[in-house]
């Protein structure tokens, strides 16, 4: 437990520093932002910071950084924050697509074949229940893929792994932001 | 192919709870936990004679140790359940759970389900298997087993005629490696030369009269690197052959029968069969079934095509998810269970399902309130909700921060204060910033003076606020620490201002962590 706490603490520290640095840079870029711009700046820096804590080792962090860098104005911002080349371009999806197409057709055959076999073996109701469950899982997997950045082309196992990592990072992000928000609120309130 | 129809589904991780038989709660769900062999199921030993060794314990080393010698005396029952493939992660657990149960020496019949495999005590092996080489040699071989070339499925010998040797084998393997491995390929190799093996194998155990059904298959499946810690073997034929060649004397015993097997197996397969025959030493009655023979041929063909793609081809059956291109060197051997399809596809799918369920368990710990949920669909639902809620929280908090601080000049100081509050109040895992940390910063850059004003004012305000709040009556322990704090605030304030001013202020983690004085306040749960 100690180790885990220590790790998350250092993670929070790292995130905080990067985040604040990003905010500062952003605010130096644009003075007098309105509230929406500020919010966007805050969120952007937070996302960049939390993605950079992973050092591009996970797919979601790479995707997140890449998505942010797509915007030209953000790109400059990003590059300034990360002078070290952490920004890694997203993988070319073409390779995965080709593979998936090839495999998909085989899967279709196999699926139908297996359904027949199972129907013979297990009886119709069990097969139906199972297929319903599978549909459920599949739909939810699709939703999860849309939630986790970069999850589109991943298979189930890696998706769950990425989700794990993403959840941890999100928690760190939320925790630090909440603390900062309450601290800032306390300070302004007591003024 | 899954044993969803069977009621004994075992969850590998639940060993300590003595899950003799887990009924899959969601049989319809695509989460065949029963696929994992359950090392921790308290596999009892089968009493006497024929019946039984149906329950196949996981071949975990710990299980082997605690196993009762009775097992060996009993002939292997015909109902070979097959092995639960070794679940790598369950090693520790199986050992724990196995100890008590193994002591009895009786396998409850309920345990005799598909995925149970009796672990065999190492010590027992030599007793009942005179032909067996010394345990060490066997273990060594078992240790190499993880590197089976994939795809030689087919006629898996009846695992339960085999269970004895399998048990010992698995046990030894586990003992050697301290890790579960999925056995694959052994069976396939065995199957190829089953007929010849039977004649030549000097199996000691009395095999059951009923013909063994080759329902189990061992297949080498590529495993992800992280999961195949020790037992990962390279799929490459070379590696297999190397391993095989390094086998002990047992291989030689089998060597000739293997070689004489009628099938035109590739060299690697031959070597694989050698390995498997080593296992088969204990296994007396390996009878290839027509089905397994056919499967074996099929698998051989597959292997012929492309050994490295045997795994991907096996994954075709996956529903809607793709198997990643696993590194070719790493494979996990999977043993099919009784009543399951034994081709490579199903085994690969089973392995994949196990992996998914493993990871789901991690997620269960992470996502609050998911400890009781069993079932992929529900778990996924919870995960989705949680991720969505976290993302929404981030949005909300960023908006809040935007409103609270119009200048976007957040300071470390504010966070430190917050940290103090948290730590004093005893909340969990503080940020770790001590109140009296001195942050060395690079000299400030030249900035327009106008910019300094708002920073200073806000910082001054915040620091005053902080100081006031610090000096408020909190616990005395808090106060004694804060007595030092105010003197540091000025320094900090300057530092922070400098930090705020310089746009390129580089906050290095080393600075911060290095500057943490030993007396910092930190509440670590």
Automatic annotation (TrEMBL), chain A:
Keywords: Transcription, Transcription regulation. Residues 9-71 form the IBH1-like N-terminal domain. This is IBH1-like N-terminal domain-containing protein. One of its GO terms (biological process) is regulation of DNA-templated transcription. Transmembrane segments: none annotated. InterPro entries: IBH1-like (IPR044660), IBH1_N (IPR059002). PANTHER family: TRANSCRIPTION FACTOR IBH1-LIKE 1 (PTHR33124:SF5). It comes from the Eukaryota.
UniProtKB/TrEMBL annotation, chain B:
GO terms for molecular function: DNA-binding transcription factor activity; protein dimerization activity. It comes from the Eukaryota. Residues 340-390 form the BHLH domain. PROSITE patterns: BHLH (PS50888). Residues 187-210, 237-324, 435-457 are annotated as: Disordered. The keyword Transcription applies. GO terms for cellular component: nucleus. InterPro entries: bHLH_dom (IPR011598), bHLH_ZIP_TF (IPR024097), HLH_DNA-bd_sf (IPR036638). Its main location: nucleus. Keywords: Nucleus, Transcription, Transcription regulation. SUPFAM superfamilies: HLH, helix-loop-helix DNA-binding domain. Residues 244-267, 292-305 have a biased composition (Basic and acidic residues). It is found in: Nucleus. Residues 274-283 have a biased composition (Polar residues). SMART domains: HLH (SM00353). PANTHER family: BHLH DOMAIN-CONTAINING PROTEIN, STEROL REGULATORY ELEMENT-BINDING PROTEIN. This is Transcription factor bHLH49-like isoform X1. It comes from Olea europaea subsp. europaea.
């Amino acid at each position: 437990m100690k180790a885990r706490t220590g790790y998350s603490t250092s993670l929070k520290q790292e995130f905080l520093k990067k985040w604040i640095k990003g905010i500062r840079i952003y605010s130096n870029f644009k003075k007098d932002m309105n509230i929406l711009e500020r919010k966007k700046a805050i969120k952007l820096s937070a996302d960049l910071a939390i993605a950079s804590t992973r050092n591009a080792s996970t797919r979601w962090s790479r995707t997140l950084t890449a998505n942010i860098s797509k915007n030209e104005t953000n790109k400059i911002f990003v590059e300034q924050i990360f002078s070290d080349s952490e920004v890694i371009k997203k993988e070319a999806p073409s390779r995965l697509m080709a593979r998936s197409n090839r495999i998909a057709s085989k899967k279709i055959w196999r699926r139908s074949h297996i359904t027949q076999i199972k129907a013979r073996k297990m009886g119709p109701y069990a097969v139906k229940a199972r297929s319903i469950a599978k549909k459920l899982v599949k739909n939810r997997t699709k939703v999860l893929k849309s939630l986790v950045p970069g999850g589109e082309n991943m298979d189930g196992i890696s998706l769950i792994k990425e989700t794990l990592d993403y959840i941890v990072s999100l928690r760190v992000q939320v925790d630090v932001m909440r603390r900062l928000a309450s601290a800032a609120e306390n300070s302004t309130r007591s003024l | 192919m899954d044993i969803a129809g069977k009621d004994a589904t075992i969850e590998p991780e639940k060993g300590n709870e003595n899950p003799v038989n887990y009924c899959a709660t969601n049989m319809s769900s695509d989460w065949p936990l029963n696929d994992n062999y359950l090392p921790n199921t308290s596999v009892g030993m089968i009493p006497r004679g024929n019946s039984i060794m149906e329950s196949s314990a996981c071949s975990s080393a710990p299980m082997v140790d605690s196993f009762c010698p009775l097992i060996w005396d009993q002939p292997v029952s015909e109902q070979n359940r097959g092995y639960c493939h070794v679940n790598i992660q369950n090693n520790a657990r199986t050992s724990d759970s196995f100890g008590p149960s193994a002591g009895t020496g009786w396998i409850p019949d309920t345990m005799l389900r598909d995925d149970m495999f009796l672990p065999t005590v190492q010590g027992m092996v030599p007793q009942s298997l005179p032909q067996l080489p010394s345990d060490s040699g066997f273990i060594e071989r078992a240790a190499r087993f993880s590197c089976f070339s994939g795809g030689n499925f087919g006629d898996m010998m009846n695992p339960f005629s085999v269970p004895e040797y399998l048990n010992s084998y698995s046990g030894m393997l586990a003992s050697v490696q301290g890790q579960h491995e999925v056995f694959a390929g052994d069976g396939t190799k065995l199957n190829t030369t089953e007929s010849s093996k039977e004649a030549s194998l000097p199996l000691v155990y009395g095999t059951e009269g009923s013909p063994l059904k080759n329902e189990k298959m061992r297949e080498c499946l590529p495993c992800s690197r992280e999961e195949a810690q020790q037992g990962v073997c390279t799929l490459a034929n070379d590696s297999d052959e190397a391993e095989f060649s390094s086998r002990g004397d047992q291989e030689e015993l089998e060597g000739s029968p293997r070689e004489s097997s009628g099938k035109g197996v590739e060299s690697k397969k031959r070597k694989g069969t050698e390995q498997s025959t080593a296992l088969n030493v204990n296994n007396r009655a390996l009878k290839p079934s027509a089905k397994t023979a056919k499967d074996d041929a099929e698998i051989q063909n597959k292997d012929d095509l492309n050994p490295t793609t045997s795994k991907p081809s096996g994954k075709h059956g996956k529903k809607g998810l793709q198997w990643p291109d696993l590194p070719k060197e790493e494979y996990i051997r999977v043993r099919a269970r009784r009543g399951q399809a034994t081709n490579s596809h199903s085994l690969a799918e089973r392995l994949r399902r196990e992996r998914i369920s493993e990871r789901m368990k991690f997620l269960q710990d992470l996502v609050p309130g998911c400890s009781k949920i069993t079932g992929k669909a529900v778990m996924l639902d919870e995960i989705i909700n949680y991720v969505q809620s976290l993302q929404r929280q981030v949005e909300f908090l960023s908006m809040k921060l935007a409103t609270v601080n119009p200048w976007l000049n957040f300071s470390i100081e504010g966070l430190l204060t917050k940290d103090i509050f948290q730590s004093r109040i005893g909340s969990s895992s503080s940020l770790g910033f001590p109140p009296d940390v001195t942050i060395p910063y690079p000299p400030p850059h030249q900035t327009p003076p106008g910019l300094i004003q708002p920073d200073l004012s806000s910082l001054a305000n915040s620091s005053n606020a902080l100081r006031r709040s610090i000096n408020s009556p909190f616990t005395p322990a808090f106060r004694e620490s804060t007595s030092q704090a105010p003197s540091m605030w000025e320094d900090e304030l300057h530092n922070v201002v400098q930090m705020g001013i310089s746009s390129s202020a580089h906050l290095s983690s080393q600075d911060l962590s290095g500057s943490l004085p030993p007396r910092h306040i930190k509440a670590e749960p």
